[in-house]
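Narrative summary of target 7.
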Amino acid sequence: MKNIFFNSSMPRSMSTLLQCILNQHPEIQATPTDPVLEYLYGARMNFTTTPEVKAIDKDLALKTWKGFCKGGLEGYASSYTDKPNLCIKTRGGTIHYRWFESFMP
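Modeled conformation, tokenized:
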């Protein structure tokens, strides 16, 4: 399992420079602005709007959805790099911190 962390900052705040510096470390892969949050947002949208989700037990639906998101994020990180640490650059990480915290590895 990889250590996954987010670089979530305002535009023009040197976040790209930080990613470049992190990429100099042999055990860290730092992404450019990354689409992984869009993938997770898609799963969240389906979770809140799909009739099939509403047809099963509410607690089970939430538990399995969080597992899906966690597995998706871990799979994304494993596919992205062989390095043990992945820093994902995104603008939405701080806005949805509590949401990510509920399923982050």
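Helices lie at 15-22, 36-49, 51-54, 58-80, 97-101.
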